[in-house]
Design goal:
With about 160 residues, this protein is of the alpha/beta class. It has 5 helices and 5 strands. It has a 5-stranded parallel β-sheet with strand order 3-2-1-4-5, sandwiched between helices. Helix 1 (about 15-25) packs across helix 3 (about 50-70). The longest helix is centred in the middle third of the chain and has 19 residues, at about 50-70. The protein is globular and about 55 Å long.
């Protein structure tokens, strides 16, 4: 099975790793990594995003380990538009988080209009941080949590 997933992945965290894990459970993986321009456009909260090359290196480091564990292959491709690679022929499934499910449904509409089969949509639940809120790159960049969801020393449940 050929599996697609996409994102900015800056920084990579345990929530992303859950997406990657599920994708590799299903098959060989193609990760669409947002271009520098698209990464800036798709941010709900404006913030600095590291360069494509820096993010690509971090994603590859995560994928190397997971692909080896499952004897799978992967490819990282640049995304220049939100629907990205998943509207292309050759994919069987797409792995998304709950908030990006609507995007996957839109991708299936585009695929159907092009005469392509719909993708199997695999939704992976958010990974909670130590405080019960979801792990997110924005929270990590703000210094609230680390990439594993641990509260930073300056912020504990008692001080919230």
């Amino acid at each position: 099975m050929q599996v697609a997933l996409g994102g900015t992945f800056d920084p990579v965290h345990d929530g992303h790793r859950a997406l990657f894990d599920r994708a590799f459970e299903l098959g060989d993986v193609t990760v669409g990594l947002t271009s520098d321009d698209l990464a800036a456009e798709t941010r709900k909260v404006p913030r600095r995003v590291r360069s494509f090359d820096e993010r690509r290196a971090d994603v590859a480091a995560e994928l190397d380990e997971l692909a080896a564990e499952r004897d799978r292959s992967y490819e990282i491709r640049r995304l220049d538009e939100p629907t990205g690679i998943a509207v292309e022929q050759g994919f069987d499934a797409i792995v998304v988080s709950p908030e990006t499910r609507a995007g996957a449904e839109r991708i299936n509409e585009i695929r159907e209009a092009r005469g392509l089969a719909s993708l199997r949509i695999e939704v992976v639940d958010h990974v909670p941080a130590e405080d019960g809120e979801r792990i997110s790159s924005t929270r990590i960049v703000r210094g609230e949590i680390d990439r594993h969801g641990n509260l930073t020393p300056e912020r504990t449940p008692e001080t919230d």
